[in-house]
Amino acid sequence: MTWWQSVVLALLQGLTEFLPISSSGHLVLVPVLAGWQDQGLAFDVAVHFGTLAAVLIYFRRDLLAMAGGWFRQVGGGGPSPESRLAWAVIVGTLPLGLVGFVGHDWIEANLRSALVIAAATGGFGVALWLADAFGAQRRSEDSLRLGDALLVGLAQVLALIPGTSRSGITMTAAMALGLTRSAAARFSFLLSVPAILAATGLETWNLIESTDPVRWDILAGATAISAVTAYLAIRLFLGFIERIGMWPFAVYRLVLAAVILWLVV
Questions:
Q1: For residue 163, which of 7, 16, 30, 121 is within the disulfide window of CB 3.0 to 4.6 Å?
Q2: CB 80 within 8 A of CB 69
Q3: pLDDT of amino acid 137
Q4: Which residue has the higher pLDDT, 157 or 207?
């Protein structure tokens, strides 16, 4: 991998990880269009570390408040909005952790084709638009009940299908439950912390067992680039999503699905 390739892919990962447009679809499409080889496991670990750092830094106050509220409640104190949100994130993470642990190898072997990615990118793009257009758009993330969190968590399981977009499917489910766009996005981003942490941990374990050579200079640069890009993407997305809605992302996903199909069919 050249420096130029690493910069492009790190920018792409940082930008698409938290937008509802499928990072996996882009990471398949761009190397195909450019004629590049697969970026490799070490690179995936690096850019995931970068996006994890971005969401931890952006939501540091929320995460600290949620952790404090959760520990106070577990220690015998009463529930608070922060502890309830922490419980929602925990409950929303359980389905993905369970299915991912049991079915990871089968998914890797059977669901990574370009046709699957194109179908998921387009189909769930339509679902995103429907939830945005017909959702009640009244609730905040603090209003989530554990049953709501479980439903969003079950939807997040679909993100194991390449092309679905973890952020896209969780925002879709949250808006279908009546959350506003910004509330759905915030809950999606908070849910991403354990999801990305688990994915990065698994990739790191596989990397430890790998014998592939590692370019540490390229990986360090890719980590920094993906972190900065992801942080800016979160900030900009939350700043304008209530004004523009989800339809531009849905249209973009349909175009991306068509491009993928055109390339492989």
A1: 121
A2: yes
A3: 93
A4: 157
Question: Does 91 have pLDDT greater than 90?
Answer: yes
* Higher per-residue confidence, 143 vs 38: 143
Cα→Cα distances 157→65, 143, 147, Å: 27, 22, 16
Contact 31, 39 (CB under 8 A): yes
The dihedral sign for the CA sequence 134, 121, 173, 139: negative
Q: What percentage of the chain carries pLDDT values higher than 70?
A: 98
Task: Find the helix or strand (DSSP H, E) in which 2 lies.
Answer: none
The Cα-based distances of 236 to 66, 177, 224 in angstroms read: 23, 24, 18
Q: What is the DSSP string of 58-73?
A: HTHHHHHHHHHHHHHH
Where do the structural domains in the chain lie, given as residue ranges? 3-264
Separation of alpha carbons 224 and 250, rounded Å:
29
How many residues does the structure list for the chain? 265
CA distance 225 to 207: 21
